[in-house]
Amino acid sequence: MPERVLDVSDLPPPEPLEQVTAALGNLAPGDYLRILHRREPLLLYPWLEEHGFVWSTQPGETTSFEIFIWRRSEEQPTIVATPVLKRT
Amino acid sequence: MSAAGLRLDQAPPFFVPLRFFITAPIFGALAAATLLAGGPQALASRWTPTALAATHLLTLGFLTMTMVGALMQLLPVLAGSPLRHPRTVATVVHGLLSAGTLALAANFLIPGPVLQFVSLAALSVGLGVFLFAAGTSLARARSDATVLAMRLAATGLLITLLIGVLIGLGGTPSRFSADKTSTDMHLASGLIGWIAILVMGVAYQVVPMFQLTRAYPSWLRRWLVPLLFVALLLWIIAARMAHALPALFAALSLGLVATVLAIFAVTTLWLQSQRKRRLPDATVRFWTLSMIGLLAAVAIMAGHAVGIIVEPRFALLAVAWLIVGFGISAVHGMLYKIVPFLAWLHLNAAGASSAQTNMKAFLPDSQALPHVWLHAAAVALLAPAVLADPRWIYPAALALLGSFIWLGRNLVLATLLYLRLQRASKSPQASTEKIVGTAR
Q1: What is the pLDDT of residue B9?
Q2: Does A86 touch chain B (CB under 8 A)?
Q3: Among B230, B254, B245, which residue's Cα sits nearest to residue B305?
Q4: Through-space distance between the first and last CA atoms of chain A, rounded to whole angstroms
Q5: B47, B400, B406, B440: which could join B378 in a potential S-S bond, CB 3.0 to 4.6 Å?
Q6: CA distance B344 to B143
Q7: % of chain A at pLDDT higher than 90
């Protein structure tokens, strides 16, 4: 499952939200998005739910949080490990 | 795909906080106009009717006004616990706080029983309703450093209100000076317990979020605000029981308040200096000014604690810098970020495409960045006005008046652009119409 990485950790609000939603619009079928973020994107979660995405938020390696996002109709990426901070 | 259709499950309608933000500069401008009208005698002491009227126009009409509005927005976002009935609470609190502040300021200038009753009743009920609504919300919230600060700040506001009402019931303004202890307690709980503690608690969240700094150290977030509250209580006890306690007790408690505030200011300046993103930003600059104002006030407090500074006019300058330099600068910085962000958020939630709305358009840097210098001039000019020649009150008050008019103009233009974009997003052509805000 190909990974697309988007680092929004140095952007002021609301640019992370704008970039993530734009990137998800261009996400090829079968791909998943890995967001590198310094905060938990609480405003993003309800938007993901409404637009048919599933996510898993985990502690990041280089940033505070990494958010993995994939389509609800597709398989969970194997990279998504437990424990998760938030998941639907 | 864009951020259009954001769900704002818990956020109140935009005009709930906005009405407080838009009203505040009017009270700020009234305070500056009061000082101008009062002239060189205005700051002869903290007891002049002009000084008392201007102080309350600034602390209630500007600072408390914006902080109440901000809390109505931040309680759901930062504490996860929205206020119930936000529209009703906003209408009641905004109306009574506005009327009560006007009546109080007028009553300092024109003593009389009617204005006295109206001001005390409106402020007690207005702030009482707010404290009840915010208190209920804070009781439900999950506790962290910011929620704890909000709880202590609400306690500080309650103490300030109660002492203020007792002073107000005690007699006419001319008799206020008879009870310096009560007014000292009122001043300390208002400036430190309410304003400083709330600014600190909110800073822990919004400075890293909007100024792109690293987080405040966790030990600082955990200990600084509770320590400040304890130091404040010790200082109040020292003031109340000055006859029974050694003078060293009062000096130590004041020194502790000054130390805690200095740690907060220096840490914030250090975090700002470590930012990776070096672009000029009005919010960052206003917060730098705010922390410098705080440090300047703290230096006077520290000098007072160790006995180097004894003259009352220095205490007056410390209070002026705490209000105009620290509190009002920080609120400017917050408003210049939160108003455009909320406008963007609500437009997207209403279905406007984020590709079509540009947050920067609501408050362009060209309108916000030069404002910092005018406000800094107002802060600096307070020093000669209080310490050297009272005629300096004219340039100081003029700079302050200009600063509030500038803020009000920017907020009104941002609101008008929001309304225009909101109408455009609802129109049938919205999907094809380019509604980027370029009007300014």
Answers
A1: 66
A2: no
A3: B254
A4: 19
A5: B400
A6: 29
A7: 51
**Between B15-38 and B65-78, two packed helices, what is the crossing angle to 10 degrees?**
150
Q: How many domains does chain A have?
A: 1
DSSP per position, B124-160 = HHHHHHHHHHHHHHHHHSPP-HHHHHHHHHHHHHHHH
Statement: residue B72 has pLDDT above 60:
yes
B54 pLDDT higher than 90: yes
Q: Tell me if A21 and B354 make a contact (CB, 8 A cut-off).
A: yes
Q: Which domain holds residue A17?
A: 3-87
Nearest residue of A to residue B11 by CA position?
A: A43
CA nearest neighbour of B59 among B400, B320, B381:
B320
Type of residue at B144: D
Phi-psi region of A30 (alpha: psi -120 to 50; beta: other; left: phi over 0): left
Q: For residues B30 and B105, is the Cβ–Cβ distance under 8 A?
A: yes
**Preferred mutation among B73, B205, B212 to probe A, highest tally of A CBs within 10 A:** B212
Q: Which of the pair, B428 or B307, is modelled with greater confidence?
A: B307
Give the pLDDT of residue B212.
92
**Which chain A positions have a beta carbon within 8 Å of B354's beta carbon?**
14, 17-18, 21
- CB-based contact (8 Å) between B436 and chain A? no
State pLDDT tens for residues B274-298: 998 778 999 999 999 999 999 999 9
Q: Give the length of chain A.
A: 88
The CATH number for A11's domain is 3.30.110.40
Nearest to A12 among B1, B9, B212 (CB): B212
Encoded tokens for B370: 């030069």
Lookup: tokens for B220: 């600082």
pLDDT tens profile B132-144 = 999 999 999 988 9
DSSP string computed for B218-233:
HHHHHHHHHHHHHHHH
Per CATH, the homologous superfamily of domain B15-420 is: Cytochrome c oxidase-like, subunit I domain (1.20.210.10)
- Domain regions of chain B by residue span: 15-420
Q: What is the pLDDT of residue B278?
A: 79
Q: Do A46 and B7 touch (CB under 8 A)?
A: yes
* B5: contact with A, CB 8 A cutoff: yes
Residues 6 or more apart whose CB falls under 8 angstroms from that of A66 comprise: A34, A35, A36, A37, A57, A58, A59, A60
Identify which of B46-50, B75-79, B347-351, B370-374 has the greatest average pLDDT.
Answer: B370-374
Residue of A nearest to B214 (CA): A38
* pLDDT at res. B180: 79
What pTM value is reported for the model?
0.92
Closest CA to B395 of B384, B381, B406, B383: B381
- Answer whether B246's CB lies under 8 Å from B271's CB: no
Residues in B closer than 8 angstroms to A46, CB to CB, are: 6-7, 9
3-class DSSP assignment, residue B385: helix
CB contact under 8 A, A18 and B3: yes
Q: Output the CA angle B81-B87-B92, nearest 5 degrees.
A: 110
